[in-house]
Amino acid sequence: MQDLEAKYQDSLDFIYSFVDFSMKRHVDDAHRFFKLDRMNQLMALMDYPHKRYPSVHVAGTKGKGSTASFIAQALIAAGYKVGLYTSPHLVEETERIRINGEDISKTDFVTLTEKLRPLTVEVKEVTTFELFTAMAMQYFADNQVDIAVFEVGLGGRLDATNVITPLVSVITSISYDHVAVLGNTLTEIAFEKGGIIKPDVPVVIAPQKDEPLKELLRIAAERHAPQVLLQQDYTFEEIAHSLQSQTFRLQNLQKPDAFTRKSLASKPITLEISLLGFHQVQNAATAFAALEILGQKGFKLSLKSIREGFEHVVWPTRFEVLRQNPPIVLDSAHNGDSMEKIVASLDEYFPGLPFVLVFGCSADKQLSSMLDAILPRVDEVIATQSLHPRAKDAQELAVAIREKGKAAEAYNPAELGMARALELAGTGKGILVTGSIFIASAARVILAEMGISK
């Protein structure tokens, strides 16, 4: 066992020895690295593993991981062998690559790393994310999956996952993020996300603001990609919720034709999900639309299997309520738009309850828009930081928060910050941990060590 663990750590050291933009505080030199040449070369050297199974491709600023998981779980419930590739991980790198909900084993991780080692000599300037992606594509091929669902890492057009030609492309909600790489306007960001739209391949587009929607429709029309617009072709509304789940009603408004056939939701149906917040209803509805297209492509999906799959989706640190009274909420929101969604969810599930905010974010994020959205909803703020190299200094965060007119204390490491938050909250306030997936996942581990977990 120790030998395997040593080999696994050696494999991780090797993969992280290459360019890893997730570890960079700033990515100003990224543009010369973001291109598909290296990934195409890797795939050729590996005999194109990604072409040995059909796939689904999911891009977007927020909600793409949840949406990908909804799609994968419904397919699993229908009896298919399903690969799922997501990023980043919460605790262990093996979480990124899954088949039917099971992480890749450390043994397989080591074996595949050994296969990749000699290829990195031939593929100059290969990146860490490209190696993870290549590993996933090979793992799914080796295990003969029936279908694989790929979540985009960054952007879409030049992301390593964009070597695939999927059965359906999915674009979730688009907002401002990674502006140094993707662009300063929603049109520019939509251009990058819309880069996953392939000629003649159907695309499902989640509800969008007018600016990104216009660009996505332009790209789809240019590539003759049939479009399903969730806000136009479906209706969906939450009808009940608790701290355990929410139920929503959905209906497909499209008239059956050669492309759509008769929908499973031609009449209103109800679905239940354990993920909380209306934005998760939107993600589930987006996934449903993508699954309907897979039904047109030969996958046998019943309403029963979709219901069962949706109910089994668990996606930690997405408005995750670890404790109910008083509540502790973890969320991986990392831009202004997603902070607004947290506020809406707090008001829906905990109306009027004051919260202590534990906040940490990456250095390259648009801090001001996040703080403008979240600070009015909280009483006190603990600024802290994760161990991630991109984490913004806790003291600097506290200064920025005070400049916005809210009292803030700074604590590093995060263990001290969580202990102080629990002290401040007492029995009358909730605790919200947010700002990045790294601080949310760190808090999850710290609280579990304190005996606080689901």
Overall description:
- With 454 residues, the protein is an alpha/beta fold.
- The protein folds into two domains: 310 residues, UDP-N-acetylmuramoyl-L-alanine:D-glutamate ligase, CATH 3.40.1190.10; 130 residues, Mur ligase, C-terminal domain (Protein-Tyrosine Phosphatase, Chain A), CATH 3.90.190.20.
- Helix content is 40%, strand content 17%.
- It contains 17 helices and 17 strands.
- The strands form three sheets. An eight-stranded mixed sheet has the order 4-3-2-5-1-6-7-8, sandwiched between helices. The chain has a six-stranded mixed sheet with strand order 12-13-17-14-15-16.
- The longest helix has 19 residues.
- It starts with a helix and ends in a 5-residue tail after the last helix.
- 48% of the residues are buried.
- About 2% of the residues have low confidence.
The gist of it:
By secondary structure, the chain is an alpha/beta fold.
Structural class per helix/strand content?
alpha/beta
Strand order of the largest sheet: 4-3-2-5-1-6-7-8
**CATH C-level category of the largest domain:** Alpha Beta
Please tally the helical runs, counting DSSP H or I stretches of 4 or more residues. Answer: 17
What general form does the structure show? globular
Report the CATH architecture of the largest domain. Answer: 3-Layer(aba) Sandwich
Main pleated sheet = 8 strands, mixed
